[in-house]
Amino acid sequence: MSVSIYAEASPNPESMKFVLNNNLLADGVSVDYPNVEAAANSPLAQELFNFDYVGRVFIAQNFVTVTKTQPELGWTQLIPELRQFLKSYVEAGGPIFTVDPAAEQKAAQAATAGDPTQQEGQIAQKVIDLLDNYVRPAVEQDGGNITFKSYHEGVVTVNLQGSCSGCPSATVTLKSGIENLLKRMVPEVQSVVAEGVMV
After folding, report:
1. DSSP output for 130-181
2. Where is the Scaffold protein Nfu/NifU N-terminal domain (predicted)?
3. Coil, strand or helix: which one is 87?
4. Which of 23, 67, 144, 150 could bridge 15 with an S-S bond, Cβ 3.0-4.6 Å?
5. Residues whose CB falls within 8 Å of the CB of residue 137, separated by 6 or more in sequence, listed in order
6. Residues of 73-109 as b/e, b for ≥16 C-beta within 10 angstroms?
7. How many Å from the N-terminal Cα to the C-terminal Cα in the chain?
């Protein structure tokens, strides 16, 4: 199988999105590895962390976002090296994951869901639908992801992953974009807070 990959800039100057012509994950599933220890489930991510400038790896349906730790290194030097590595690895049939992340995520969501009231559960479902249908596609275009974590007494908690984590514009996007949309569509929502944003 021939793999073609192109690099696409993200709003975070330290993150680059590498888009492949084949799928790595099911639609709607993504994984974010802030360090090599977190990447135990992904041989691909572990290999990427062997590049000494790689600080974070995010994998979604058909792209990998790499965040570098050395601002002085320009992407023009790094893109050819990373693109060649990804192309060779995927073409050779290298393992992307040891356990399917979709199964892992379902188990984690069930564990953190707690026991919301029926009303909170209905509001949470509305929020999840809005995030999945309107917000996530836009965030994925920028090389990141947003996932619902919880809803409690008017406060929605989300996780920002990939290029969104550490992005200078993430807080603005969260407050002026996502929070406004959710408040308009779900009147019970009072505010949106994010985990994974390093401001």
Report:
1. HIIIIIHHHHHHTTEEEEEEEEETTEEEEEEEETTTT-TTHHHIIIIIIIHH
2. 5-93
3. helix
4. 67
5. none
6. eebeebbeebbebbbebbeeeeebbeeebeeeeeeee
7. 41
CA pair distance 84, 94, nearest whole angstrom: 14
User: How far is 145 from 165, CA to CA, in rounded Å?
Assistant: 9
Please check the confidence at residue 149 and state whether its pLDDT lies above 90.
no
**Residue 125 token pair:** 């479902």
Cα 126 vs. chain centroid, distance in angstroms? 21
Cα distances (Å, whole numbers) of residue 45 to 6, 16, 78, 83: 18, 15, 16, 14
179-199 burial code (b ≥16 CB/10 A, e <16): bebbbeebebbeebebebbee
The rounded radius of gyration (Å) of the Cα atoms in the chain is: 17
Strands 15-20 and 63-68: antiparallel
pLDDT digits (tens, 9 = 90+) for 155-197: 888 887 777 776 767 777 777 788 888 888 888 989 888 875 5
**Given this model, what pLDDT does residue 120 score?**
82
43 Cβ neighbours under 8 A, 6+ residues apart? 94, 95, 96, 97, 98
Closest CA to 144 of 74, 73, 65, 54: 65
**Sheet strands side by side (includes 191-195):** 144-152, 155-162, 191-195
Report how far residue 191's alpha carbon sits from residue 178's, in angstroms, rounded to the nearest whole number: 10
